[in-house]
Amino acid sequence: MTAPLVLFHASVQREADVFPLRQHGRDAAAVVGMDGQNQIRVATTLSDLARELVRVPGPTTVAFLLRRDPSPALLVRVYTTDTSGPGWATARRLMDEVVVDGGAVTVVKALPGSHVPPTAEEVARLRRRATAAVDPTDSVDELRAQNQDLVQTLEDLEAKQRELIRLNEELEETNQGIIALHKELSDELEQTNQGVVALYAELEEKTTQLREAGEARTRFWSNISHELRSPVNSVVGLARLLADPDGDPLTDEQRHQVGLINEAGSTLLALINELLDTAKAESGSLRPRFAPVDLPLLLARLHGTVDALARGADVELVVDHQEGLPALVTDEVMLLRVLRNLLSNALKFTERGSVRLDVRVEGTHLRFVVSDTGIGIPPTEQARVFEDFYQVPGRLQIGAGGTGLGLPYARRLAVILGGDLVLRSTPGEGTEVTVTLPLQEPDDTTTAALALVVVPDDVVRALVVAALEGLAESVVEVVDGREALVVARRDRPDLVVLAVDVPHVGGTEILSVLRGADESRSVPVLVVSQDVDSGLERTAATLDAVVVPVAGIAPGPVRESVRGARAAARSREAG
Predict the structure, then answer these.
(1) What is the widest separation between alpha-carbon atoms in the chain?
(2) Reaction catalysed by this chain (predicted)?
(3) Which one of 1, 250, 251, 531 is most buried, by most CB atoms within 10 A?
(4) Full-prediction pTM beyond 0.85?
(5) Which whole number is the average pLDDT over 134-159?
């Protein structure tokens, strides 16, 4: 690091030295390239310091130096150890740094990086002026210079005051703009709120229409059940009576015709039952009843039921399973329907070879694999076979019959049971359908990470929260419908419990919004109500929710209702 350049030395001993030291400070500041304001700061600082130094016995040496690195600065080094007077306070206020080092105090004023170092001639002239005899008129000139500095300072203050007034005026204009913007935003928010209210009204109207449509569909299927199933059952029963060997004898032709009537009636009855079961699955009213299942017995019954559907001796039906299969807890009726549908499809479209059902344990799941050596399904058709009523065109389809509901229905049931159904097929080689089910009872021990409880009544809400203990890790309680929608969107709960009588946005309206959003369409929902009527139950079933009467709020019933709600949610996800 380069040593500082010594500009000159000065001495302070009496009052007459005050003005010269001030002038020396101004001259030094000017030579090193400071602007007028900083020259005034340096001169004022040295004037105040000189008044402190004249009180010290004997002369005090003051050295002026120019530091060139690490950063350029003017250094005023005063050889004293007393820095307690008000002059030193001025130095600390007007200068950049005051450094006490041994028997000297250095006052530092930084220079801009763009300053031009003084030439040797300028330094020599500065030194000559500093060592010249002091002219009495210099004191007068210095006093005049001080007055000019004060005038300049006052003018600067006035300029700053005018600038401050201007800034205040601009700030006032800005405040007025902010007020106008706030009013505009408030008006827009009010309009948005009105739009939201209108949207809720429209949503309520759509919900009513949806409820009415659901009721109409329920009535339609009820009529189908009564008007079609009963006559068809009668036709089938009468045809069987006519064909009974113990009845009146029939000619061969009559017996053949009665057999055709019986076969057609049975086919029609099976189609009607399949349509009704599919409608129940779609509406969410198809609920699983979980219980332990004897798998070997179930598979034996299944083999005996579907073996007769084979096209002939060229097709072998094989049902194989591991020895010592673990207990499976599921809905036995639903599982039978799934496997019967899959085996029936495989037998319909297999002319020779085999149809196999293999049951294997894989980890915590049980896999039912139905494979055949049939005609297979083209890749372009494999996604469409899960569309309701769709049938893959082909020569074997012409005489196979059916509604095209078998595979969609089987997959819905598999999902309701907590599992999945996957299809793989190669044209000309065959098809393989895998149903995967959990070995444990679905959702019986599953704990929701977050449950949202939207119940305005304090007592009922407390009952619900107590019943959810062990079913949810945390519970968020809300009493307002609008807030419930905000929380549901923000926190994405894993379980929702709604009351019907929620203020601002009703419980069924909240349920409709949840079902309309992708992130919450499959969230299990319980609807709590004091009065449970058929209309509410139909609405809840249409939107895949489970109704819980207030009188039934207890840990056991709520646990069962949550399990049913999860099954309904899985059904919606599958659909």
Answers:
(1) 158
(2) ATP + protein L-histidine = ADP + protein N-phospho-L-histidine
(3) 250
(4) no
(5) 61
